[in-house]
Structure formats: C-alpha cells, structure tokens
Amino acid sequence: MTERIPPPGTSAGPAAQGVRPGDGGLADADDRLPPPRLGYETATWKEIAHLLTNLPLALVGFVYATTMLATSAMLTVTVIGFPLLAVGLMGARQLGRMERARARALLGVRVDEPSPLPWRGRQEGGFFARMWMGLKDPVGWRTFLYEVIRLPWGIVTFVITLTGLFVLWPVLPFIARGLTNVDRALVRGLLSPSDELERRIAELESDRGIVVDTAAADLRRIERDLHDGAQARLVNLAMGLGLAKEKLLEDPDTAAMMVDEAHGEVKLALQELRDLARGIHPAVLTDRGLDAALSSVASRCTVPVKVTVDLVDRPAEAIEGIAYFTVSELLQNVSKHSAARSAAVDVWRTEERLLIQVTDDGQGGASLDGGTGMRGLADRLGAVDGLFVVDSPQGGPTTITAELPWRERRA
C-alpha cells in the first residue's frame, strides 16, 4: 500500500496543484494602523486625502444610485425597467470595486472581493435567468446603500477636514483618525462579502451549473456511443438478416454464411452495450462496492495495479459513483500517458471524508491544464465539496489525491 497522507490541502508541497471550492479573492491582511501622533505622518496625509475626496466621489455615487433606482422604478411598467435595474446593480459592483481599491490605498483596509456572479450554467435559462440573478445580487444592493449613506457623511467629513486644515491643525490627525475609522467600518460592513454564507451560496450556484453541464455532456456521450456503436451494428444486423431471408430458398449456403456473420454482429453489439452500461453505472459497483469495482477497472489497465480499499461501510451511492469514475479516468490516463511500469490505488476513510490516492512510477508532468481531463475531474469533485490535488514533478512519480465528503448510505 502507498503511504497514506494527511487530508489534502495541508502540505501538498510546491509541486502540487489543488482545487478547492471558494479559493480566490484577496487575502485578509493586517490593516491595523499605528496610533495617530501630533505630527503629520504618511498615514495621516492619506487619511486626510481620503476625507477630502469623500464628497466628490460620494456625489458621483449618490447620483448614480438614485438615478438608476428612480429611473428603473418609473420604467417598471415597461419591458426595460427590470433589465435596467439589473444593469445598474452590475454597475454598482464596479463602484464598490473602486471604493475598495481606494480604501486599500488610503486607509489600509483590505477586504475580500465579493464572489462574481455565477453566470456559468445559466445559459439554459437565457436572458431572464441572468436578469433575475442580477436583480437579487446582494453585493449590488449593499453598494447602492453605501452610496446613498455616504453623501451626507461625505459632506460632514469634507467640511470638518477642510476646516481642520486651517483651524484645528494641531489635533487634525486625531480627528482624521476618528472620521476614517467610520469610513473603515462602512467599507467593511457594506462593501465586503457579507459573510461566508454569501460566498458559499455563490459557490453552490456555480457548482450546480457544473453538475448540469457535466450531466448534459454525459448524455451527449451516451447518445453518440449508442448512435455510432450498438445502433449502427443493429441496423447492419437487420439488413443482413433481411438479405439472408431472401437468399434462404435460392442459395442456402450463402444465407447460412450471412446468418453466421449476423451472429458475430450480435455478439459485438452486446459487448458494446455492456461497455456502455458499465460506463453509465457498472453492475459490479452496485452489487459489490468499490473494492470489487475498482479491481475490475484495474484489471483493464495496461500496467499492473495494486488496489487497496480499506472501508468498513459503503458511502452514499452518488459519492461511490464519483469515486469509481475518478479512479477509472485516472487509470486510463496511466495507461495512455504515464509510461509507467506499475500503479497503485488506495481508498480509505478519514473522519467524514473519503480519500482516494492513485500513484504511478511513470514519467510525471501531469497537471490540471495538461489536456488529460484533470480539470474536468477537479470540477466534478469541487461540485460536491471535494478536493483534487496533483503532485507530478517531471520524471515522476505521480501522486493524485482526491477527497470527497463522506455521506452515509441510505438503507
């Protein structure tokens, strides 16, 4: 058995590439500032610049927000009111992006960028599905609220800061710090992701699109295999038997030969149908579980494969199926691309996760963007809260680890 590693994502090493749902955005940083002093430091001047630019930028944002809201409200009786509002909310996202950039540059506030709208997987819904997604975008609505609130606050901060430059010069650093702390709170409260729930919702929306796309691709593959394989053979079989029927009385020897050929076609068609059924969901997986199913897959690999499945219970059918097809595709890659002499498959459970590790002693160089289906596997696992890690330096060996959530099998 290969050495078992801790759950992926903790110490995959520099050569590893991993995909976990939700990766991305700006990393949180320490945005704490030193306490203000009577002297004017760089941070103080940045805060003053932020307060003085609040008013003109607040005017732009307030005019944009109120104009879009008022115009859209008046046009809701027509066909363009709601689409216009959706476009306005998308524009509000860009205003929020600029305000976050200004806060990073002048106030040292670093917050995550909100997740983008998950357009993928929405093509089937067309224009109205995309419009509805834009209308219910919480990021755009919070940005509208931010722009409306900021105008009166921008007037206050501009007046106080401008007056302080001429009247309250000695204590202006303390005043600027207090005022910008309110700005920091507004940015964190209204322009940052609301919480992990919002990011998770966006991930699930995107994952649903992946699942839909994957299912559609699988259906197209099955249809193509049926049309080009078994169906074509059955059509030829029917034609051959028809000709044999015509020849039966006038040329029995030729008819017998044609029936013999048709018998061979029947065998090939049955084999193709078995292979197709195995590709949809193998009977051995349903009847005997991962150990027997993966051993069957390994027996068809062009290199010797050692399979070790250490599971007391069986996971849910969906998780078991994903595990099976993941190993199946990885072993196909071993056969086609690795130039390996041997490989190994290990499957085990760690707490509430199902771990799969496929290793080979081949030439290495596998990657998520290498054109061998790795990206598709990573997307499929990501759609069910899984993880996919590739560790394949040039020259090998290759270790690919997949992690799936453990879900109990229904009785």
Describe this structure in words.
It is built from eleven helices and six strands. With 411 residues, the chain is of the alpha+beta class. It folds into three domains: 27-194, no CATH class; 212-280, Single alpha-helices involved in coiled-coils or other helix-helix interfaces, CATH 1.20.5; 283-405, 2-Layer Sandwich (Heat Shock Protein 90). Mean pLDDT is 78; it is low at 1-17, 19-30 and 120-124.
Number of domains: 3
General form: elongated
Mean pLDDT across all residues, rounded? 78
For the sheet with most strands, the description reads: 6 strands, mixed
> Nearest-angstrom radius of gyration?
31 Å
Question: Uncertain spans, ≥5 residues at pLDDT below 50?
Answer: 1-17, 19-30, 120-124
Order of helices and strands: EHHHHHHHHHEHEEHEE
Distance between the termini: 31 Å
Strand segment tally = 6
Give the strand line-up of the largest sheet: 1-5-6-4-3-2
Residue share in β-strands: 5-15%
How many helices in DSSP terms? 11
Q: Helix/strand/pairing class, anyone?
A: alpha+beta
Helix share, percent: 55-70%
Give the topology.
Elements: E1 16-19, H1 42-74, H2 81-107, H3 126-135, H4 138-166, H5 172-191, H6 196-250, H7 252-280, H8 283-288, H9 290-299, E2 305-310, H10 317-338, E3 343-350, E4 353-360, H11 374-382, E5 387-391, E6 398-405
Parallel strand pairs: 2-3
Antiparallel strand pairs: 1-5, 3-4, 4-6, 5-6
Helix pairs in contact: 1-2, 1-4, 1-5, 2-3, 2-4, 2-5, 4-5, 6-7, 9-10, 10-11
